[in-house]
Amino acid sequence: MENFVSVINGLVWSNALIALCLGTGLYFSVRTRFLQVRHFKEMFRLLFDGKSTDSGVSSFQALSMSLAGRVGTGNIAGVATAIAFGGPGAMFWMWLVAFLGASTAFIEATLAQIYKEKHLGELRGGPAFYIERGLGIKWFGVLFAIVSVISAGVLLPGVQANSVADGIKNAFNLETWVTGVGLVLIFAAIVFGGVKRIAKFTEYIVPFMAIGYMLIAVIIIVVDFKNLPDVIALVFKSAFNMEAGFGAVFGLAVQWGVKRGIYSNEAGQGTAPHIAAAANVSHPAKQGLVQSFSVYIDTLLVCSATGFMLLMTGKYNVHNPDFGIAGASEFLYSGAQNIAVGPGYTQSAMDSVFPGFGSYFVAIALFFFAFTTILAYYYIAETNISYLTRKFESPFFNYVLKIIMMLVIMYGSINQAKLAWDIGDIGVGLMAWFNIIAIILLQKPALAALKDYEKQKKQGLDPVFNPEDIGVTNAHIWNTIQKNEQV
After folding, report:
1. What is its main location (predicted)?
2. pLDDT tens track for 447-485
3. What's the rounded Cα separation, in Å, for the pair 288 and 108?
4. What phi and psi, each to the nearest 5 degrees, are found at residue 333?
5. Are 162 and 452 in contact (CB under 8 A)?
6. CA nearest 107: which of 449, 473, 376, 455?
7. Cβ count near 215 (within 10 Å)
8. How much is the pTM?
9. Number of CB atoms found within 10 A of residue 111's CB
10. Which has the closest alpha carbon to 428: 373, 367, 368?
11. CB 131 within 8 A of CB 142
């Protein structure tokens, strides 16, 4: 089973996908004239734009829900994995994919807003919706929806559950099955309350957990501040094969940095647009800019916090890809003896500065990070089920999804970490392939929406979207939205 999954993972995450992710981010950065820099101030202002309604959520709630999906085990265990197999240089490539990916995040989120719909009284949208309505290729939309349900509902939740169970076992010596049962019960209590309960939960939990985690990281950096310049230099030298000790993993630094960067910030993956579509805003570009900002929060802040903690404390290993060849050692660097790749690295790093506290803190942070991500995955899977069952006014399939995900969470909690990560990577890779191809083909409406937004802002207006003004069809819900605004 492990060998089969590993082979499939290698095919999905080929060099072609890595090049596609970086190339797409660079292309959209140029096409939007680097909006991630030009509109940084506007991104922050828009965080608190829009209000929650019976059918949609506020911009901040949508941000919190998307961050719930972005800020997960990838920010703790994922960063540790990237460094373990790609060396310190993987950090640079995570930063680069985040910076370029902010423009990709804008395009996909804006498209999700343009082509959103209302189903069972709630706003829904995402790649399947904009593929069908924007590209007019229904079979492609159906295919993406099926892949998304499988990925978000079956393949990805197990990774989050596995890291939570692993972290709690390291800190509290609690059996993984016990953690699994607890996760299942809490998950059920929230998701049976609907999207509004998910939005409320993440609105309060996500900012609290992210700020708390980064504060601890800042303290660790301050304690050993004199080594910060050397650590930053190590990251850049390793990223460009200028550090002899990590030369063997130079190519892997790019591969693991991009892979874990996308897994963490989700730019281009096609997951965040589902949540972006639920935001109640007056113009699609508003939520596009908010989603761009969330990529910065995830990678440049939270992922960097983990990376600097590991590198400054030295509590990490870098595996030697040549291990097994005569004379080759197992590690190019070994600072976390007898600790498996994953959250244990971060727990060890914190314990080295806060003895007796670090492991517990990471376990608790990991619980909140990963659990809110599982909730985001549920919403994504549910949205695609809504797309596939739009002709049915029945929540039956949503109940089936809830039960399946409860089983997946339990299985992921007791599963082997490597298998769980490989399965999760397949899910991320498949969605990224389909979504990036779709947004490249359907970029024009998103770029036109950005131009329209900038034009109205220059006129001193609070931008309002009228699809006909930019030549967009099949965005019928915006006629209803504007009528409601005028009442």
Report:
1. membrane
2. 999 999 999 999 999 899 999 888 888 877 887 766 555
3. 8
4. -150, 135
5. no
6. 449
7. 11
8. 0.84
9. 31
10. 373
11. no
